[in-house]
Design brief:
Elements (H helix, E strand, L loop, with lengths): L3 E3 L8 H19 L4 E7 L2 E6 L4 H10 L7 E9 L7 E9 L4 E9 L6 E2 L8 H12 L3 E2 L28 E6 L4 E6 L18
Parallel strand pairs: 1-2, 3-6, 7-8
Antiparallel strand pairs: 2-3, 4-5, 5-6, 9-10
Length: 206
Amino acid sequence: MLFIKSFSNTIEFDYSRYVFWYQLKFVNLFSLMAPSAIKECIVNSNDIEIKTLAKSLEAILWLLKYNSLTHFEQNIEIVAADVPTSNSRFKVIYVLRSLLYNSVITISFITAETDFKVSSINYLYRSSTWLEREVWDMFGITFNSNSDLRRILTDYGFHGHALRKDFPLSGFKEIYYDDSSKRIIFELVEMAQELRVFGFQRRINC
C-alpha cells in the first residue's frame, strides 16, 4: 500500500498545483496496479519523490515518460550517495523534468555494493548515457546494457572512484609537469615527513 508523507498544509489553486495533484493521482493509481514497484512516495510542496527498487526502475520511468498525465520526457540528472555504514551502501537518484507541465519528479532506490544490478535507461533517455558515465566514474556503480562506461570526469589512467567515502583525500597518484623532461609525470603519492623530536619537558622562555 502506498504511504504518502505531506509536508505542506497550504493548497494553492493554480495550474501548477492542478497538474501536481493529477500527477500524484497517477502515482497512486500506479501503486495500486503494482504495489511492489513503489515503496514510498514523499510529497514536499510541489515536489514528488518516489522510492522504488532497482528492478522496478525501468517500468516506472517508462510510464512517467509516456503517460499523458505525467509526460516526463527529460532526464536532467542522475546522482548517487555513498553511505558506507548502511547495508545498502549506495543510493541512486534520478531527476526527471516535464516541459509540458513544467514539473520535476525524483525517483530513487538503494543498492548494495555487492549487488550492482542497475539497468541502463539510455534507450529511454539519450542524455542518460553520459549521466550514467559520471555515476560510474565517481562511484563505480555499473549500469547494465551501457556499452560506453568510460571515464568522463577523471583521467583514463585514474585508479578508484573519487566520491566513495573510502577513497583517500590525497588520491593514489600525483600528476605534475616536469620542465626538464618536457612531459607530464605520474607518480604514487608519498606523504613523507622528516623525523622530529619534541622535548615536551623543556620550558619555553617567552
